[in-house]
Structures are given as structure tokens and as C-alpha cells.
Amino acid sequence: MRLTCPHCGERDLREFVYGGAALARPSGDWGPDWDAYVHLRENPAGRSREYWQHGSGCAAWLLVERDTVTHEIYAVTLAGEGAA
Ligand SMILES: [Zn+2]
Question: In angstroms, what is the span from residue 28 Cα to ligand 1's centroid?
């Protein structure tokens, strides 16, 4: 799999570090929604949104939308530009 960093261009996956699923943060105080946000993860087969860091490159955090089955990349944006 190859990712296209907005700063560095297309690079091999080995340059990137997986940062987890891009989940929407719950609003409000600590409660069951926050517990699920922090501790529970799904393992989706198909389209998903994930954070990746270009650790061996510019160190930027990216929001990657990809298919976990086919590894097709739909979009790569800087994490701050594609709010979860
Ligand atoms: Zn980069």
C-alpha cells in the first residue's frame, strides 16, 4: 500500500505509523460515550477513516480514508483539515 502525503508526495506504507481509527469525539463530560470512545474499537471490513503519521517523512498527521479489504485509498488530507 502507498499513501500520498500532501507535503511529500506518494510514499511507501513503511514510512507511516498507524494512529488509530478517526472517531468523532463525544461531547460533554465523562460517561459511557467516552468510555466507548477510549476503549472500544471495531474492526471494520470496508471503507474506514484512520489517522496515520508520516513518521519517516515530514511527521504530519494525516486523515486517510481507505478500504481495509482492498486497500484502495479514497482520500488523504492533513488531519486538521478533515475533521472526524
Ligand atoms: Zn510527509
Answer: 34
In total, how many domains does the chain have? 1
Q: pTM score > 0.90 for this model?
A: no
In the reported structure, the alpha carbon of residue 13 is separated from the centroid of ligand 1 by a whole-number distance in angstroms of 12
Domain CATH number, residue 29: 3.30.2270.10
| Cα 35 to averaged position of ligand 1 atoms, centre (Å) | 32
Q: Is 19 exposed, middle or buried (0-12, 13-18, 19+ CB in 10 A)?
A: middle
If you measure from the C-alpha of residue 45 to the centroid of ligand 1, how many angstroms do you get, rounded to a whole number?
27
**Cα distance between residue 37 and residue 10, in whole Å:** 31
pLDDT in tens, 6-23: 999 999 999 999 999 998
